[in-house]
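Researcher: Re-running this chain for the archive, since the previous output was lost when a drive failed. Same request as before.
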Amino acid sequence: GQSSTSGGGSGGGIGPDTSMLAKKREENEMAKERYRSGRNRQRRHLSAEEREEALKSMQSTASAVDAARSAKIASAPKRSADEEEDIGGEARTSTAGRGEASFLRDMSTKVHGMGGGASMADRIGRNRHTNQRGSESFL
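Model: Regenerated structure tokens:
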């Protein structure tokens, strides 16, 4: 009847069939080569006509963008010179240019004791709870 090797491989030994291994290695090599060739592909050089067509396309796109920008600027509301001066003066004298409300700024200076001529020693004494623990001799 039966032979002592029950494996279906042509090698007769233990392990995978050598012909299957060779086929798999060849497939892997082909896949690697396809990957390498796709990655290192050279740029296709354009003919003179193709280059001219691409240049015209880019120039027409650029002119359309410029026209849209000019139309947007022209349709923007115009400010008078007095308004520009008022806005510039506000930004220099307060923080209104940053969108901060003046009542918040006033409240902050009161809470933190930065206004009203308080001395540095007064501020440190009032904020003693923020000092590090164990430094009782601090001021």
